Amino acid sequence: AQAAQSRNRPDVAEYLVGECVESEIPAEAKSDYYRINASRLHRLGRETEAVESFRKYYDIFDLDAEPFERLKLVNIAQQRGWWDFSAQILKDVMSRSEELSPQVRAETLKRLGDIEAARGQTEAALEQYLQLAWSLPAEAASHAGLLKAAAIYQQRAFPVQAIELLRIVAKDAPTSELKNEAHSRLDALDAL
């Protein structure tokens, strides 16, 4: 299964993992087994089992791994709609916030806000985005969070708050892409 995975044959790897007996997998291969098995189970629509296999993978995942490695795990979990598990990983990352670069802290807080928004918890998402913006104002992720917070204010019919946040992004964002998006949204609000 590991050889098939390294040869970019996930279908073969998943088939082989499906034939394995978990208790017979050597300890050094368990990480790959759980990761591949989670993909297999997800593809088969067995989400509860897939989450459990992925959780076992995460439990033996190198906890000292670079934060960006953990964020890759979050990407996988978010793509599958595993919001609680994604949030758990992000909270694990934030538990070491003093060791993280501002960029990683900002990205982690933004993703926590994204998870709350995906769950429909707009108040919690708004809190995350605003906390991010005020605690790490120089980071691009902070300005992306402000754009998302402005969208929440717009949805709630609070245009004054939305305009304030969009003006901050238009003025201070570190990338022209973020500034342009803020200007476009301000123009759209002015047209109303």
What does this protein structure show overall?
It is a single chain. This protein has about 190 residues and is mainly α. The protein has helices at about 1-5, 10-20, 30-45, 45-60, 65-80, 85-95, 100-120, 120-135, 140-155, 160-170, 175-190. Helix 6 (about 85-95) packs antiparallel against helix 7 (about 100-120).
List the helices and strands and how they pair.
Elements: H1 2-6, H2 10-18, H3 30-43, H4 47-60, H5 67-79, H6 83-94, H7 102-118, H8 122-135, H9 140-155, H10 159-172, H11 176-191
Helix pairs in contact: 2-3, 3-4, 5-6, 6-7, 7-8, 7-9, 8-9, 9-10, 10-11
**Average residue pLDDT:** 86
What is the beta-strand fraction?
Answer: under 5%
- Structural category is mainly alpha
What is the percent of helical residues? over 70%
Q: What separation lies between the terminal Cα atoms?
A: 57 Å
**Largest beta-sheet details:** none
Unreliable spans are none
Along the chain, the helix and strand elements come as HHHHHHHHHHH
Shape: elongated
Count of alpha and pi helical runs:
11
Give Rg in angstroms: 20 Å
User: What is the number of beta strands?
Assistant: 0
